[in-house]
Amino acid sequence: MKLSEIKEILPTLENVEFQLEDGTFVPEHFHVTEVGEITKKFIDCGGVIRNEKVVNFQLWNADDYEHRLKPGKLLNIIRLSENKLGIEDAEIEVEYQSTTIGKYDLEFNGKHFILKNKKTACLAQDACGIPSEKPKVKLSEIQSSSCTPNSGCC
């Protein structure tokens, strides 16, 4: 989800709710402690230099159980970040701590925001030498003339 998309969704909501893919919700007393832009410059395993830019939201739970972040407040935080930091419209990445700090993609299911698990991947698959899919072979169809029962090869 891009920053422009969340800015369109927020005014239509009464509450801001984040849900993990496993169905559990981020506690409703969460804070958005950071909104920023992260730029990553790196080289992939194929030797290609790459640049990625994401808008980063950091969610944090405190012991102030009466705290509730309303959609208008989050929208104001986003606008302030755009104005002060010059944040561009980019994909949103959410940081949230469970057992460790996790990074998530963001989607909206019509009611709440879904923190989608991110996965690693090779960006230079043509240079890796890893086949896109392993061939499927049935062992019963493999014929070997060199090793038969009672031939002494096993």
UniProtKB/TrEMBL annotation:
Pfam families noted in UniProt: DUF6428
Domain of life: Bacteria
UniProt protein name: Uncharacterized protein
